[in-house]
């Protein structure tokens, strides 16, 4: 460990972001040495981790897929198996598989300004061996939540329930729900996916929600995209469908933000059209917040509403008083019988995989840092990260920031720099939460995350078109990005 292996770039995470980062790095900097460390034993990230029935993307794959690799399947809203196959095909086609080191969990990383590199502490989770890798750059592509622990709130009387309690993040392979009464606690994307997927085999599925979520029926197939692919071929048809869907996402988001009352009425009308006559739409599908204050839940081919309509599923809006031996007692006094309770209660948010960062001997306190261009942190040199959009497809932003990262490396090479560190011009700059999003999983962790500023380049943008201008079109040189050479630090020419 006195002389750890050295790389130009160490990518953390072999999911959709890590595979994308590796592709862009190979394309733009083929001579740079890199590796991907992955804590688990397989590639694919989220799409390999989650195994619950019906798991799918709620973003279309023409925008959720990579810009450089066409999505060829006829279904635009696809299940996890298809997405995982697409990711692994991407990795195999580009030789990225050979760069992945499995069961390598990053514990922490220490930056040295004199050496101009990170020394990364890693645990081999399969052997408990500790090792180190040094790298000029650390690129964190590990997502935003804990893979080993989902979020479950306290439920009074939980220990009394004699049936089975399951969290979707840890779905048991042996769970047989055929002919069983199932209660799914939650109203987000996972819950609305599970309900129709389980309703075909279960005796009955009840979605128990504390408050409603906006649910939008969409077609699982994109007719325009499939025609474009047939007429123009995979590559050009995909590019055209991608542009169309980017514009569509932007329109829907802006319409909801600018005309919330009209958007609310429209969504309600679409829901009522899919539900049985006389169904209490306002009780179960009319949230108190405005559309896109939280993410809209897309249900392909209205499958959730179909399950409600045929009686195999139902929605209950109420609060839990306590679990009982046979189910759940609600505050209204109603009891829900259950053989299986699924706690689709969300994720546990975690920044950068929980790794501890140290810069020149001082620990980095994330809430004291400010996001730079949505991809670096103030005061943390040669550290980049991938985070996607909350109001659009995740991968749209990942592609742009990977492009910008590669452009930054080229700029530094051309001017003889090896260190890049964001430093605000105004040390007293007003800041706000890292992500302006009211979802519970964000709010529970907001005080543990970095911050963002009031204007560029310190904003965590959620606008693809703004990011195209900032990350693709604008110069990488910025007064707030301090570029130096570690040799000058060693010579005492740069103040530390």
From TrEMBL:
Gene3D superfamilies: FAD/NAD(P)-binding domain. Pfam families: FMO-like (PF00743), NAD_binding_8 (PF13450). Keywords: FAD, Flavoprotein, Monooxygenase, NADP, Oxidoreductase. Coiled coil: none annotated. Its cofactor is FAD. It comes from the Bacteria. InterPro entries: FAD-binding_MO, FAD/NAD-bd_sf, Flavin_mOase-like. The keyword Acetylation does not apply. The keyword Transport does not apply. Belongs to the FAD-binding monooxygenase family. This is Flavin-binding monooxygenase.
